[in-house]
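Comment thread on ticket #2218

A.B. wrote:
> Attaching the input chain for the structure job we discussed in standup.
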Amino acid sequence: MTKRRRFLALVGGALTSTIVLAGCLGNPPTSTDAGGSAPTSQAPAAGNTDLEVKTVSLGFIPILEAAPLVIGVEKGFFARHGLEVNLSKQASWPAARDNVVLGTAGGGIEGGQWQLPMPQMISEGAITDGKKVPMYILAMLMSQGQGLAASNSVKDANLGTDLKPAASFIKDFPQTEKRKFRAAYTFPKANQDMWIRYWLAAGGIDPDKDVELLTVPSTETVQGMRNGTMELFSTGDPWPTRVVNDKIGYLATTTAYLWPVHPEEFLAVRADWVDKNPKATIALIKGVIEAQQWLDKPENKIEAAKILSSRKWYNIPQPVLELALKGGYKPGTTPTPETDPKNAPLYWNSDRGVISYPYKSLTLWFLLESMRWKFYPDTVGSIEQAKAINDKVTREDLWRQAAQELGLPAADIPTTSSRGKETFFDGVVYDPEKPQAYLDSVKIKR
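C.D. wrote:
> Ran it. Output below, let me know if you need it in another format.
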C-alpha cells in the first residue's frame, strides 16, 4: 500500500518535492491531503550537489516552533543547499518519539522538532522502553512563543505571572469543585510540563500535590478547554492565542515573562544519520539558519502566517497566526494584543544573542529540571551524569561549521558553550557554572 503521496513543483528548472505526512501513534506516518499551494523552491546552490544523501525525513508538531522547518521547505532554503526535506506532521509527541525510533528504514523519521529533554532521553532509552537511539541536538528552533492559557471558568481568580495572590484559589479548588485544579501539557517530563511546574512552584504551589497534571495533544487543547477538561494548559502558539481569540479563556502568562529569551524547542536528528551524512547535516543546519533569519524579519510575518495557515501545515486561520507571530495577547483577563517585539516568538535575533545556537548551558537546564523533579532518577541522578549526557548529545560544533560556511559575521557565531547567567521572573538565578547552587535555590522540588 502506498504510504506517501508525492507533490511535485517545477521551479527554476529544478525538480523538487515535498512530502506532507500525518504521523500516528506508534506507527509510521500515513499520507494526508496536502492542499494549498505548491512549495516554492530554489535550485541547489553551487558546491552543494555532492551531499551523501539528497533527502531527509523529519517530523513536526503544528506550533510556531516548527516554523523554521516549514519555511525552510516552502521558501527553498533547504533546496538551495541541495537537500530535500520531507516534513511529516506528527499526531502527538509520543508519535514523534515512536517514529524516530523506527527511523526512515522502518517507515518513520530521522528527527525533527523536539521538546527537551526528549532527544537526550531517547538517546538514553529512558522514554523508549530501554531502546537507546542516540540523537544529536543541532540547533534551537525558537525562543518564547509559549503561553499558559487559563479558562474563563477561572477568570475571577485572575491568574497571572505572579501566582502568589491566587495560590489559595488553586489550593482550595478541591473544596469548591470536589476535584483538583487541572493543568495540561502536551508531553510529560519535557519543557511544556517544566514551564507549568516552574510557574506553579514559584507561586508556592506544589505541582505534584496541589494540582492534577494532564497530557493533552496541542491540537486538542482548545477543544479540551472549551469542554471543561482543564482549567489551564501550557503549549506553543498559535493555540494559546486562539483560546483568547475564540473567547474561551485568557492568558495567565507567557514564557517570555517567566524567562525572557529562554530555550524552547530544538532541531535534533538521529546520530547514525548525522554520522553517515555530515555534508547533508551541514546543509540541513544552513537551511534552518536561513529560515530563522527570514522569519525574524517583521516584513515577512504576514507571508509566514499565510504559508503556515494552509491545510497541509497548521490549518489555522491566517489572522490568528499573524497575531501569534507578532506576540499574540498580553497576559491578563482583558484581551489586549501584544505589541512589544521582545515578547514575541524569536527565531534569530535577541538581546541575548543568536537564538539558533544550541548552547550547552541551555540544553543542560532541562536535565537539571529533570533532576529537580526526579523525572529520570536512574538516568539523570547527578550533575555529572547530566553533563555527560549533554556533552554527548548537543553538537555546537556542527552549528558553528554551518554558520562559518554560510559566511555569517563573527558576532553571530558564539565561541563558548555558555550564554552566561540566566535570571527568572521570580529572581532565581541559573548560573551554568554552578548547577548545584541553582538546584539548591529552588524551594519546591522532589
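A.B. wrote:
> Thanks. Noting for the ticket: Residues 73 and 203 are 42 Å apart (CA to CA).
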